[in-house]
Design brief:
The complex is a heterodimer of chains A (243) and B (701). Chain A has 243 residues and is α+β, with helices and mostly antiparallel strands. Chain A has 2 domains: 1-51; 58-230, Alpha-Beta Plaits, CATH 3.30.70.20. Chain A is built from 8 helices and 7 strands; from the N terminus they run H-H-E-H-E-H-H-E-E-H-E-E-H-E-H. Chain A has a two-stranded antiparallel sheet. A two-stranded antiparallel sheet of chain A has the order 3-4. A two-stranded antiparallel ribbon of chain A has the order 5-6. Chain A is globular and about 50 Å long. Chain B is of the alpha+beta class. Chain B folds into 3 domains: 10-206, Aldehyde Ferredoxin Oxidoreductase,  A, domain 1, CATH 3.60.9.10; 232-337, no CATH class; 475-696, Aldehyde Ferredoxin Oxidoreductase Protein, subunit A, domain 3 (Orthogonal Bundle). In chain B, the strands form 5 sheets. In chain B, strands 2-1-6-3-4-5 form a 6-stranded mixed sheet. In chain B, a hairpin with a 2-residue loop joins strand 7 (125-130) and strand 8. In chain B, helix 17 crosses helix 18 and helix 21 (477-488) packs across helix 28 (654-668). The chains are: A alpha+beta (243), B alpha+beta (701). At the A-B interface, helix 3, strand 2 and helix 4 of A face helix 3, helix 4, strand 13, helix 7 and strand 16 of B.
Chain lengths: 243, 701
Amino acid sequence: MSGEYQKHQVLEKALNFTNSSHSLSRREFLIMTGGIIVAVSALEARGAKEPPLIIVDQAEGLVIADATQCVGCRRCELACTEFNDGKASPTMARIKIGRNLNFGPKGPYAGLRAQGNWGNGLIIQDLCKQCPHPVPCANACPNDAIVVSPSTGARVVDPNKCTGCKMCQRACPWEMMSFDSDTNKATKCFLCEGNPKCVEACPSGALSYVAWRDLTDKVPPRVVPTAVVSPEKAQTCIDCHKK
Amino acid sequence: MAKYGGWAGKVLRVDLSTGRMSTDDTVEQYKDYLGGTGIGYKVIWDEVQAGTKPFDPENKIVFGVGPLAGTGAPCNGRTAITTLWPTCWPRPLVASGHMGGHFAAELKYAGYDAIIIEGKADHPVWLSVMDGRTEIKDARQLWGQGIRRSTIEINQQMGPEATVAAIGQAGENLVPMSVVMNSYSHSAGGVGGVMGSKNLKAIGVRGTGSVRIAGNKEEWEKAIKLHLSLLGANNQNVVPNSPQPWAEHYNAGSRWMASAGRRWGASDPNIDTGACEPHNLNRIAYRTNNAAFFLGDKAWQYTVRGNGCTACPIRCHTMLKVPAVAAKYGIPEVGQNTCVGLLFGKAFFKTFPDGPRGQTAIEACMVGMHLADDLGIWENYGQLQRDFQALYYNGIFGRKVAEKEFKSYSWDKYEEGDPTFLFELLPKIANKQGELATALGLGTGYLLERWGIPEQEWLENHELLYWKFGHPKHHSNEDAGQCGVIINTQYNRDAQCHSHSNFTRNGLPLEVQKRLAVELWGAPDAVDGVADFTPMNVYKAKMAKWSLLRKELHDCLSLCNWMGPWVASPLRERDYRGEDSIESLLYSLATGDRKSRQELDQVAERIFLLHRALTIRDMGTKEMRTKHDTIPHWVFADPKDRAAFSKGTIRMDRDDIKLAMDMYYEEMAWDKQTGSPTRETYRRLGLETVADELAKRGLLT
């Protein structure tokens, strides 16, 4: 993708955003414009030194789940990796059921508060939030390998750039980064170009692909992220947010 | 990259006597036997001497799965556990138990197609299998604990994603009627005591690997979607059980329970199961509610959701939440199981104060599941409970058990249908306390022998549904006439075959079934209306052979024979046809080893033949027709003395069944006189060395 084209896309997205009926708060406006400046200036600078990638535009959709409808069959996990990668690999699936299946998010120490098959039956499906800016996995990537999919706006791993360092895994508060141990690359939910296999595969209709909404402040995190943002990226944050 | 997909590639071998662990190459050593029971029979044939007893350290247990386990092929969650069977009477023979849940898939992700357990540990241990790292761990702190507590403890050590197959107190105490259980409610009967005899409390498995699909992923996706489109409800019932806007047919006996207004009432908020139009693959999981099927409409209000095995959209285990039981019996509000596991507690009682489908019956189920699935007691396909009722109401307990012990039970509670009675009985079975409970824990054959009751009485009693060798019928003449009878003669425990009954009970009108039968077995006469049977013909024998081979194939591939085969479908545009080649399509794509339906059936025949050879070897006779393939007398009787082949009876005719067995042996190319396979048959299926071994022992026809 050429730098010119990217620049055009960023501005296009910004214009769409400002033209929408969404009224911007002062903070949002600052983040928005700051982001554009960073992105645009970053693109201008290309050729000299690779500037850090900061994702500011939002995904168009995301997969949401109804826990009461989940029957714990894991067909979503299997569809994710079989139909996309040619192997059955729940650990690598970009939707995660198995870890909550037995006891729920609190695990086998939950006692009477357990969920899942050994508790009250509720199965919490863990899904990628396609985070808004700042995107933790993308910001943690030292190689800028997590980029925006042109078709859906999903945050996706560019396998050509990923070196398999797993920094992204340590950045996601919901532990939604997956790893393909055959290719030694990170992977994550890329929304299957707008037709998510997991949604299609669910035999109880518990999953839906919907217009993007911000779930990052609604779904409790699983872990405290421990990834470090590189000084270069941190500097862009400062550059932008001090304005 | 491994040559084949599907298989994990390794079989783990653990000798508990020495602590030695090793691996075999699955493809090199077991490819001709696929997996599951195939590996199980092969190991027992090669490595366990005739005359070995189930609880001897020399006996081995094989936890086997197949190339489809852990993939997205629907209904692949079953692990086959093969060993010498402790309830097989009067002498133990090879058999297998099958547990669903998530163990099979997790084993594959951990890198194994099977685990062979050998020897005996000198103290209680459990086995931790984590991604190819196996450790024998001390289980002394777990010994004496139920399955639930043991599982949670092991999950605390291995992590929440591990699947644990554990025995309860029953298995520890070498009660033959005991199970191994995984994923809360998925058990394999009969093998708990064998694990206990090896001092093996549990196997915990955790895998982060994958199962490679060898074929093109788009083709695989198409095959999966085809298979999904053919699914019905549980037991492959392909019509709904009540009229639905989309349905041409319905059948009140169908397990396809969903309908507008029938709600998962304990889900918060409620979920309406709705019409479940068959093309809507996002509604498959709502079709089945086995609690409502077995316990009546009252179960809907208590239904949390369906549950079940890895990759199975059917969800035949129903999760129930019955708040009243917490205060009333001091047990958890939530319980789950299916079929006889669900009915474990209820089935002991003859009556309940509010009838067979009332609240008390449901509470008895909750108490039964709570106790049995923690203590690890097996019900032998309901034979335990049928025996119990007969032994009590016929006064046999009173005669065989010392008065003091007999009176220690609250029989008044039992007769009233009070579920609290189960708290008296079930722990005693698991702990071998007293004569009554100890005898019940032996299984029917050994119980009758211990108490000097002639087996004949059981063979004649229609209500007991007892078949032979200590075990009951499993989908016999009541579901498929002569075909069902033939199938029930073939195994060393209850037959566990559903290939035939999943067709005859699929709910389609007989004329549709007959149309499909022409394509499958050559003539419409292969199938009859249930309890409207016609005399034997060769097409019924072909159906019996097909049924048995598909059962064995499913047990080796890890497809569920409680759901398959899939030769009928709910799809009107296909004239309700299913797909007879779905197994070979999935197998070929997953493994990359292209095999036609016929070729794969031939592999299944080899495996089934090895089971036959093992049975002959361990019985020490080739007179299988008279000594093994026996049929209980009740099959030839009718409570109202209706003649065989008259409408309304499942009674069979003796001469006709003789003909049925003749035709069956001919289809199998076995010797008709003895019912033993011929050398030519062994040779044709690649088992000439097996024939040689039998010949050496004078056991070859």
